[in-house]
Amino acid sequence: MAYKIDERNKNLFAIVDDKIVPRSEASIPIWDAGFLHGKQIWSSPRLVNGKIFRLQDHLDKIRHGIQAMNCKIVPDDAVFRKAIRNVLVANKMQGATGVHIRIVYTPGTQVTASMNMKAVVNWDGTPAPPRIIVMPEWRGMGTIYDTVKGEKAIISQYRRPSPQFADQRIHSNNQIHSSLACDEAVQAGVAAALMLDADGFVAEAHASHMAIIKDGKFYTPHVRCCPPGVTRKVLLEVCQSNDIPAMEDDITVERLMDADEVMIMGTMSGPISITHVDGNVIGDGEIGPMTTRLKALYNDAMADEKNLFDIFAEEE
Ligand SMILES: Cc1ncc(COP(=O)(O)O)c(C=O)c1O
Questions:
Q1: What value, to the nearest 5°, has the Cα angle with vertex 56 and ends 247 and 307?
Q2: pTM for this prediction
Q3: How far apart are CA 134 and CA 130, in angstroms?
């Protein structure tokens, strides 16, 4: 899997607790609830011509996680938008494209290292303020992927957890399974590790969703053992508005291998063709026509003003 260092990212600013700080100084207390116990929620939208693609969907994804965490103080969306705007301005990113914005939320700093949310307080016992971090970086869409020949994937030995253990719609930093699967992909020299759920159905790829195409139909796994995804949501909508039959389904490894096309999808890349899985050729081993069409439709959606939020136009 390719990885690119962008020198422009060396001297960026992040925002932490309302303070704009150079990235080398951006830090959180070691008593942070997200650091100590994995209570950290995140999502990463993208800047397109200075506007944020489907920002509200990303904020909704974050809110679902916040609501699951029993926080005493819950910031509304305007607080997130202000932090995002301020850090983008600090980085002179107005009008930019190719910026990936990681938004992170934690319940705040604790007075003792306990899992009890009652420990997330100030020294006078009042509720601690929640922590919002926004860290934008220059990262073009899909730049690390081969969009001419397509990419290869493996099936990971690690499984995605099921909602039996915790609601997987909570997009938290408890991503050790996916992170280890990423290591497997890197070791195998492929772009993605596809992860099964405990029942043996494909759940998603290590850091993105996936879909198969069979007989002109788009099938993507249910959001059961994976977090919800904005790219997946947009692609389902795009299929619907272009009369491409699309549905959520349980996808076995046999169906995966027998697919006409396989793709992964996320904000980082848009739809990316997977032409080989575990060395097996998918379809004719080339980027398929439906993946090409969906990529074009996804690009159209990214250019559509109704999907773009003008973060710089908003009043303080
Ligand atoms: C585990 C996982 N799956 C899928 C995705 C893709 O989600 P999105 O389309 O919202 O970028 C992400 C991205 O954050 C992710 O971390």
A1: 70
A2: 0.96
A3: 13
Indicate whether residue 207 lines ligand 1 (CB < 6 A). Answer: yes
On whether the 7-138 domain is CATH 3.40.50.11890, my answer is no
What would the CATH number be for the domain defined by 151-303? 3.20.10.10
- Ligand 1 in reach of 178 Cβ (< 6 A): yes
Residue type, 174: N
**Cβ neighbours, 10 Å, residue 284:** 10
Listed by start position, the domains of the chain span 7-138, 151-303
In this structure, which residue's CA is closest to atom 1 in ligand 1? 207
Report the amino acid identity of residue 112: T
DSSP 3-state helix, strand, coil percentages of the chain (rounded to 5)? 30, 30, 45
pLDDT tens digits, one per residue of 230-272: 999 999 999 999 999 999 999 999 999 999 999 999 999 999 9
DSSP codes, 241-289: HTT--EEE----HHHHHT-SEEEEEETTTEEEEEEEETTEEPTTSS--H
Q: Is 204 in the pocket of ligand 1 (CB under 6 A)?
A: yes
